[in-house]
Fold:
Amino acid sequence: MTAVDIHEQIDITRRRSKTLVGAAVHRHTRLSSAGISERLFTHAFAGLVYPQIWEDPVVDLEAMGLESGQHIVAIASGGCNILSYLTSAPVKITGVDLNTAHIALNRLKHAAIKHLDYTHFHAMFADAANAGNVQIFDRKLAGRLDAQTRRYWTKRDWRGRRRIDGFACGFYRTGLLGRFITTGHTLARTLGGNPASIVKAKSFDEQRTIFETEIRPLLRRPIVRRLLDQRASLFGLGIPPAQYEALSDGRPMHEVIEERLERLACGFDLKDNYFAWQAFNRGYGKGGPLPLYLQEANFDNLRDRIGDVRILNTSFTAHLASLPAQSVDRFVLLDAQDWMGDADLTELWQEITRTSRSGARVIFRTAGLQTILPGRIADGVLAQWHYEAERSAELGARDRSAIYGGFHLYIKKD
Structure:
């Protein structure tokens, strides 16, 4: 394949990502203010967004109660949660995603689990800022990848750097979310603050003190509040225009962001909260907490079970439509329903209901506090599901990522 062919293939892949994301996000005409905002988001979302995803897999696992042999269909995103689920039980998982960059990241992780020892796996995805990672890729992984995934990671940017080089200088600082967090840290230092100081806290009291002295004053600076109140400024968090309204709930966005960051910084012990390390340290740090799939004790189980995971570049609804009835035990929707109009939401839940086995469970998150389903999908469909309201609230309160308003669990009735 020539260099021209490779670039054409990459352009086709990126266009496919934009097309799939656009179909999920676009609700308004192209030249309306809302339509322009939606298309700007689609452009931003076409590349890598989440080097790490922001849903707590420990909460997910408690809600799902996985048993050996069950079939999960989940939105893949950066792949962290799918792999963490696999550490708990030998299950079959199908991950789907609209974003081709996320597909490439998932497939790179799967190849690394199959072909690296734990030391090199840790270097790649826990450290993720080591020059030796590029050699690990070239010598041990590149030849094991499918052609499309290999092309993605060897594509060069305008500086001549390959995408895989991100693992040499800080992979978790790349992608839309990583760049957003890095920009926030740069702005904070410019204004005289240092959010990273909070990871040095030795107690809850220290966490609170550092938040009040280093972070809250920054969030209350007029320039920061003005920036947070701009819709486009939150594209870096992967928040599309439709989700912005649910997140703000009629309040100024800077107030909402301040509340969520306070919970992230002060609501959980930093020794156990890798989400806080990502936000305030821009990486896991030496000896810091790790997701389940990156912990050495789980690596052998991952390697034994990774063959039961597949990753598809398609929509959740389209994939379910291809499956036989009563073939899925668990559904993981992340926050995707916040993006959907009523027609798309109805079609999705019709397929979930058709493909679900008795006792199946659906978990998802919302930017706002409440479940978004009542009144938006047909009563006859929703009546086949029981909403675990108290359990949902309990689990949501324990979600260490602290970014979402609500966590929701639905169980299929017998």
The two ends are 54 Å apart (CA to CA).
